[in-house]
Amino acid sequence: HTVTTTSSSFTANLSASSSTLAYDKEFLRTLPGLLMVTEIVLGLLVWTLIAGTEYFLYPAFGWVMFVAVFYWVLTIFFLIIYMTMTYTRIPQVPWTAVGLCFNGSAFILYLIAAIVDASSVTKELDSHNYNSWAASSFFAFVVTSCYAGNTYFSFISWRSRTLQ
To answer: Is residue 104 within 8 Å of residue 151, measured between CB atoms?
Structure first.
């Protein structure tokens, strides 16, 4: 009587892939890496300052919340991709074009959200939430400028890649 054991291909692939996981600690020392961390920290401030108010009563602040949370989550996702160097393991994806589209769309939509946020802040609207909304507006413009910087760096990277 013979007993044969086999391992699944999933566990074999998992152990093989986890042993080759890279970590780029130098990325956070680059200007795009620093801008991403700033986008994450200040983007968190934007949406938490609004989330602590009765923003759901005002549709404009709902839009700002959507943009802030959406790009906050995606920026964390891209930071993980860059820190773990996942982009080197998936060469089928045009990462320079993806980065340019991501940062460009984040810049445009954050700029619109920051303008909507700033134009919606009035003492008459709700004086109780005025300070939180005003602070979120300021930080939204700072995050917008960070995405503008990363859009520039993404464009330079994309441009040098397409010229090769």
So the answer is: yes
Say if CB 111 and CB 144 are below 8 A apart.
yes
Residue 75 contacts residue 39 (beta carbons within 8 Å): yes
The CA dihedral of 121, 123, 125, 131, to the nearest 10 degrees, is: 60
pLDDT digits (tens, 9 = 90+) for 5-34: 444 443 334 344 444 667 888 999 999 999
Q: 50's torsion region: left (phi>0), alpha (psi -120 to 50) or beta? A: alpha
Compute the distance between CA of residue 146 and CA of residue 75 in angstroms, rounded to an integer.
12
Nearest to 67 by CA among 6, 143, 8: 143
Whether 111 and 70 have beta carbons less than 8 Å apart is answered as no
pTM: 0.82
Enumerate the domain spans of the chain. Answer: 23-115
Once rounded to an integer, what is the mean pLDDT over residues 141-149? 98
